[in-house]
Amino acid sequence: MPKNKSKGSKIERELYEIFVKNNYRAIRTAGSGTMENADCDLIAGKKGKKYCIEVKSSKKPVKYISKEQISRFIIFSEIIGLKPVIALRFNREGWLFISPKILRDAGKNWVITLEEARKKGKKFSQFFK
Question: Which of 10, 85, 112, 124 is the most interior residue, by most CB within 10 Å?
Fold first, then answer.
């Protein structure tokens, strides 16, 4: 398994555990990003709250995400009726959660900086209260 693929799986499992510890039911979607129709990393919910989650991490203070990937992610979440959420994990920062609408246009990609994520994002307990 390529290194960044295993790192992605590791942080997805980490986030999965956070949801479970907070009394959510959650599943990791197999093959997200590689299989057709698997356009999110986690699905989590509890009574009245259902989320489609795209997990992203970065060593750098900026994260670029392709417009195509975000488009597929939003369409997928709309089709199955879940709220789309991007879970960001910058090195030594902890988790920050944002709506895809917060992403900034950067040509072929959407982008968010660590600074923007700190200002506009929320910690788990704030976002999923």
Answer: 112
